[in-house]
């Protein structure tokens, strides 16, 4: 009975061709790269934990509950935007994934890095201020009731929503948890520690508002049918608390990791 229930839980709610291909490619590259360069056990655990959380949030029954309960939806986005990207990028996987590429692939990446136009585009897209703003916007914009309504009834917009929070999460935590001095890191070590204060505060305010408001902001979940039959106000309050407290806690943990890496750089005289 348990095995059958587990199997049903792991079957994708909305099967996709693209997502499994991304997971397989990323997993294969990491395994291959870990065979070519030394990767500590802690880094491996962090990467595969984040990898598994991404899969659970996107390719299992979790996605069904996220469409039928607001608190499950906020839990899914907590994983996609905060927890899973933090774990993956805390393992600084770029070097491992690069090592997993075949020789021709590594040569292609090197050639692209030497292209002035591409470097300019990446510098613009990955500017710390822009990434931080987009990271914050990608949380708040999907909380606007009218936009939330549209994202839940349009399958393409729903997939874009989940993809956008995952990608912006990876970009933000990749900059914040960079273990190198600046440059080549894009943000100074001290600012990496302080950055979560900027992104955390609006989320706390939004979470508090959703938690304590007395009106139903997201009636779409009644239209979709609630998976657990929770009253709308209770479901909404739990979802607001998830945005308010656990999300802030994850960002605080990220700030502490950045602080630890700042102290290491300082001890080594690399600031």
UniProtKB/TrEMBL annotation:
UniProt keywords, alphabetically: Cell membrane, Membrane, Transmembrane, Transmembrane helix
Positions of transmembrane segments: 12-33, 45-62, 82-103, 124-145, 157-177, 189-212, 238-259
Cellular localization per UniProt: Cell membrane
Record's GO cellular component terms: plasma membrane
Membrane topology label: Multi-pass membrane protein
Signal peptide segment: none
Designated name of the protein: Putative inner membrane protein
């Amino acid at each position: 009975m348990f095995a059958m229930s587990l199997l049903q839980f792991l079957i994708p709610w909305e099967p996709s061709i693209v997502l499994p291909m991304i997971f397989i490619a990323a997993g294969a590259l990491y395994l291959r790269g870990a065979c070519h360069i030394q990767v500590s056990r802690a880094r491996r655990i962090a990467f595969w934990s984040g990898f598994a959380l991404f899969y659970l949030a996107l390719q299992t029954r979790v996605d069904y509950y996220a469409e039928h309960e607001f608190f499950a939806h906020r839990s899914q986005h907590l994983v996609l935007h905060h927890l899973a990207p933090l774990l993956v990028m805390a393992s600084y996987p770029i070097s491992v994934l690069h090592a997993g590429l075949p020789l021709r692939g590594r040569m292609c990446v090197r050639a692209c890095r030497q292209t002035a136009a591409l470097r300019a585009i990446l510098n613009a897209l990955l500017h710390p201020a822009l990434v931080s703003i987009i990271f914050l916007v990608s949380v708040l914009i999907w909380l606007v009731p009218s936009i939330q309504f549209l994202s839940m009834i349009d399958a393409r917009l729903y997939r874009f929503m989940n993809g956008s929070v995952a990608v912006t999460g990876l970009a933000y935590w990749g900059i914040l948890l960079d273990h190198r001095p600046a440059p080549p890191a894009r943000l100074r070590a001290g600012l990496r520690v302080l950055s979560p204060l900027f992104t955390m505060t609006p989320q706390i305010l939004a979470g508090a508002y959703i938690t304590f408001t007395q009106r139903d902001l997201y009636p779409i979940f009644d239209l979709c049918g609630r998976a657990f039959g929770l009253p709308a106000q209770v479901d909404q309050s739990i979802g607001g608390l998830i945005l308010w407290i656990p999300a802030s806690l994850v960002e605080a943990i990220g700030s502490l990791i950045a602080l630890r890496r700042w102290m290491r750089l300082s001890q080594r005289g690399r600031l």
